[in-house]
Specification:
Number of strands: 9
Shape: globular
Strand content: 5-15%
Largest sheet: 5 strands, parallel
Helix content: 25-40%
Structural class: alpha/beta
Length: 335
């Protein structure tokens, strides 16, 4: 699913001539409701070596053992521990909060309401204080973030340019399955994903959709290995101008309902007229609506789990601060 990342900061030391061996990297976490922050972590980890192994925890991604010790203590002592730079402004906590509050404050053109600000300030915060890992922070899009995720490649002669469009909200395995099927349609595919503006998605999805705003959805889709390019704020109707501009050979859509445009017309009428429209069955029954429904159904359980997780992490941070403040000779293991 994730595009391979190479050449990023923090790469492993390169061995000398004649002693080159593959560097295997281990990276673990809960990866609950995978988002572009997770993708960025895996991209950085992949750049540190040649082969990436990802471990998925059964629950919470607590960094403490049952006896309160750092789970990475052994590899740190062996000098084999590296940290990936955190992607600010995104967390599972924040995404869940948006689903539960049913607000549009996270949309790209909206000001954060006082209600959402109060909720965001409290949702990722246990009674003991604020945790920098679990808490909610504001996402700020930059060109550098886009460059880190983008493939940087243009269509080459002989490649089949395939256009897909949609919200791609809470980018999940259903989307990946769809894009994989589209990718298989050609020997040398070049897939362009058109992402609709937040207001357009809200028009045809309703409620407080999209859960992720346009900038966030852009990074999520760019991280997928099957996507070569993203149109940020694509028109809802696939027009003749769009098809001509990108030299599109094929237009694909999933099995979800096609909502008419504002004037009642079919947004895919032009590619259908040209005979280049295909509907693709992803084979997955997972949808963004189903994910949201799961969260709403299990709200109390999630909130309790989140506060318990943060309380443990805060305890670990406090213990680490106390140890760092002790004189060198008084620390554990220094006697």
């Amino acid at each position: 699913m994730i595009r391979n990342g190479r050449g990023a900061a923090g790469g492993a030391e390169q061995p000398g001539p004649g002693d080159r061996r593959a560097v295997r990297v281990w990276c673990d976490g809960c990866y609950d409701m995978v988002h572009y922050g997770h993708s960025n972590q895996l991209r950085q980890a992949r750049a540190m070596g040649d082969y990436l192994i990802v471990g998925v925890h059964t629950d919470d991604d607590i960094t403490l053992t049952v006896d309160g010790r750092d789970t990475y203590e052994e590899v740190k002592q062996a000098g084999r521990y590296r940290e990936c730079k955190r992607t600010q402004g995104v967390s599972t906590t924040d995404l869940v909060g948006r689903m539960l509050l049913v607000t549009k404050a996270h949309h790209s053109s909206q000001e954060m309401s006082s209600e959402y600000r109060e909720y965001a300030d409290s949702f990722g915060k246990c009674p003991g204080g604020r945790n920098p890992w679990t808490g909610v922070s504001q996402f700020l899009q930059t060109s550098q973030k886009i460059i880190q995720f983008a493939s940087g490649k243009e269509p080459q002669p002989g490649e089949t340019v395939i256009y897909v469009a949609g919200a791609f909200d809470l980018f999940h395995i259903g989307h990946v399955d769809f894009l994989e099927k589209v990718h298989r349609l050609a020997e040398r595919p070049y897939i362009i994903a058109g992402l609709h503006f937040d207001q357009e998605v809200n028009r045809y999805k309703g409620k407080n959709y999209p859960i992720m705003n346009l900038h966030e959805r852009t990074l999520s889709v760019l991280a997928c290995r099957y996507v070569s390019e993203v149109v940020i704020g694509a028109p809802y109707a696939v027009t003749a101008e769009l098809l001509s501009h990108f030299k599109v050979d094929l237009v694909c859509h999933g099995k979800t309902e096609i909502i008419p445009d504002r004037d009642g017309s079919d947004p895919y009428q032009e590619p259908k007229r040209r005979g280049i429209f295909r509907q693709i069955d992803s084979g997955s029954n997972l949808t963004t609506d189903l994910i949201v429904q799961r969260i709403i159904t299990n709200r109390l359980e999630y909130e309790a789990r989140n506060q318990k997780k943060e309380a443990k992490e805060l305890a670990f941070l406090e213990a680490a601060r106390r140890q760092a403040a002790q004189p060198l000779g008084e620390r554990d293991g220094d006697f």
